Amino acid sequence: MRGTRGAEWNISSVQYDLLEHLSSPLKLQDSYQHQYLILATTTEANIKFIMFTGIVEEVGVVSKLDNNDSTGGTSLTISIPSGSQLLSDCHDGDSISVNGVCLTVTSFTPEAFTIGVAPETLRITNLGDLKENSNVNLERAVRADTRMGGHFVQGHVDTTAKILSVTKDGNALTFRFQPARRDMLRYIVYKGYIAIDGTSLTVTKVNDQEGWWEVMLIAYTQERVVVAQKKEGDTVNLEVDMMAKYAEKSLGGVVGSEPGSVASFPFIEKIVERIVAQGFGAKQ
């Protein structure tokens, strides 16, 4: 990944760390965090690196939807709650995650901002389902000194998922999802991270055979994210943990198969499950 002044995060070093520390998943976690600290330090000084944490800052409201704006494309104007500081340090060209999709601010006021949405984005995310008065999750791109309360989220949606069921468990809600792309299930592991509409959540159950996974929303989270307002049959945006993709690519080279090939899955799944079981990054 190369910046405007030639700064580069050497992905091969991540691969080296993955292979070197497979015998100790806890060392792997430390190594990954170290890589991010190096990247973040380089980023603040030299490059524009877009990253989110999956911790929703505000729930905004679509106040205007224009399917044929001045550029001939689609734009959304999103209003933020009164007194919100979300746009206090905003500039034209800044990135904001809207339901987990990294989008560029084209204009703003203290109370609202406008973003352009590409046709491809409308096709592969649930943003095409938005209407005026729809609620959306909002998060600004992180700074290098931001506390990592969630996990590393890029704002690049992998696919959508359908809500199969919503079940009460005390004051919590259990959501069961089925991805539009079943191949994404290989990146979803028990107690692993997942971003749903841009919200960092922990996977509580996975059934690869039936093609679904579950997350649980506590009462606090229900009050602060849009997922809690959704019902069976609704769709959400899904972004899997990017470290699972890096692990697959690195380990695929070791076992002599291309990333995504069936031959690499059993070995990789065992490694990932071992890492997760020993505490790699998941919130409890």
Description:
With 284 residues, the chain is α+β, with helices and mostly antiparallel strands. It folds into three domains: 36 residues; 83 residues, Beta Barrel (Elongation Factor Tu (Ef-tu), domain 3); 119 residues, Elongation Factor Tu (Ef-tu), domain 3, CATH 2.40.30. It has a six-stranded antiparallel beta barrel with strand order 1-2-5-4-3-6. A six-stranded antiparallel barrel has the order 7-8-11-10-9-12. It is globular.
Structural class: alpha+beta
**CATH class category name of the largest domain:** Mainly Beta
Per DSSP E runs of 2 or more residues, the count of β-strands stands at 12
Order of helices and strands: HHEEEEEHEEEEEEHEHH
CATH architecture of the largest domain: Beta Barrel
* Uncertain stretches: 1-48
Which sheet architecture does the biggest sheet show? Answer: 6 strands, antiparallel, barrel
What's the structural domain tally?
Answer: 3
Tell me the span between the first and last alpha carbons.
32 Å
Strand arrangement within the widest β-sheet reads 1-2-5-4-3-6
- Percentage of helical residues? 10-25%
| Proportion of residues in β-strands | 25-35%
Number of helices: 6
Determine the mean pLDDT: 80
The rough form would be described as globular
CATH topology of the largest domain: Elongation Factor Tu (Ef-tu), domain 3
CA radius of gyration is: 19 Å
EC number: 2.5.1.9
Organism: Gibberella zeae (strain ATCC MYA-4620 / CBS 123657 / FGSC 9075 / NRRL 31084 / PH-1) (Wheat head blight fungus)
Protein name: Riboflavin synthase
Function: Catalyzes the dismutation of two molecules of 6,7-dimethyl-8-ribityllumazine, resulting in the formation of riboflavin and 5-amino-6-(D-ribitylamino)uracil.
